[in-house]
Write a structure and sequence with these properties.
Blueprint lengths: L2 E4 L9 H15 L8 H7 L5 H11 L11 H24 L9 H10 L4 E5 L3 H12 L7 E6 L11 H10 L6 E5 L2 H9 L3 E5 L14 E3 L11 E3 L10 H9 L1
This protein binds xylulose-1,5-bisphosphate and magnesium ion.
The site of xylulose-1,5-bisphosphate has 17 residues, from helix 1.
Length: 254
């Protein structure tokens, strides 16, 4: 097992409902738009990966009066990119406020793998600045140095569920999919990691718990801690209270 490759949103931290969604709404208000993505609507919009793509899908679904006066054609693309940059600014500020912690067990597993010399990498749809801000504020200042490769956002032409971002990370690390294991939280993420040929461990969250994870090796409610055990939703466990490097290795060998 030559590397552990982690998704970010929903896997390292529960960033969507109280993070990205709030940042989108702050950017909409700042732009004078009377758009409000409540929890339910955001859950539907999460089917589209990528913040810019998600804004575009929302615009396409709206009644004309909700989007009248917006630019057309290429100008709309630039307008969306500017709105999304404002959203990223708000999201980074939320992370800097310390409001978004790592999920249960993430720090423990990352530290165990790092200390054991198992290379770490990230494969995410989110914007690179968001990854840096999450690692700096929720893991520790300088934590980016723990990751050999950080594949994020627009670095690849097609976002998850396409395999591109995992293919990119494997290529940058000079590794084959069978030498690694992926950690994801959503069906879009699982489709991406499986399309790249990676065995995958899922930790579900409120937005993804009802999704189809049948192609995953293991599905848990969280990575957990000895004092806050994980629960197996699908797959084989070993006699452990939480996901650790030995259990990950057994899944990879399986
Ligand atoms: C989740 C996504 C991202 C975030 C928002 O990425 O699809 O688009 O929802 O971030 P992953 P941006 O689960 O692959 O980490 O607005 O920066 O896209
Ligand atoms: Mg995710």
């Amino acid at each position: 097992m030559k590397a552990l490759i982690f998704d970010v949103d929903g896997t390292l931290a529960d960033t969507e409902r109280d993070g990205h969604r709030v940042a989108f709404n702050l950017a909409f208000a700042e732009a004078g738009l009377d758009w409000e993505w409540d929890e339910a609507l955001y859950g539907e919009l999460l089917a589209v990966t990528g913040g810019k793509e998600r804004i575009r899908r929302f615009i396409e679904q709206q009644k004309p009066q909700m989007v009248e006066g917006l630019p057309e054609g290429d100008d709309l693309g630039e307008w969306i990119a500017a709105l999304h940059a404002a959203k990223t600014r708000h999201f980074v500020a939320l992370l800097a406020s310390g409001k978004i912690p790592l999920r249960s067990g993430v720090r423990r597993l990352l530290t165990e793998a790092h200390d054991a010399g198992v290379p770490l990498a990230i494969a995410t749809t989110t914007t690179p600045q968001n990854v840096s801000a999450l690692l700096e504020n929720a893991l520790f200042p300088g934590a980016e140095s723990w990751f050999e490769v950080i594949g994020a956002g627009d670095i690849v032409p097609a976002k998850k569920p396409a395999a591109d971002i995992y293919d990119y990370v494997l290529e940058q690390m000079g590794l084959k999919p069978e030498q690694c294991i992926a950690f994801e939280d959503s069906v879009n993420g699982l489709r991406s990691s499986r399309a790249a040929g990676l065995k995958t461990i899922i930790t579900v969250n409120g937005y993804t718990e009802a999704e189809d994870f049948s192609s995953a090796e293991l599905v848990l409610d969280q990575m957990g801690e000895p004092s806050d055990p994980c629960h197996i939703i699908q797959g084989d466990g070993i006699d452990k209270p939480c996901l650790d490097l030995e259990w990950v290795r057994k899944i990879w060998e399986g």
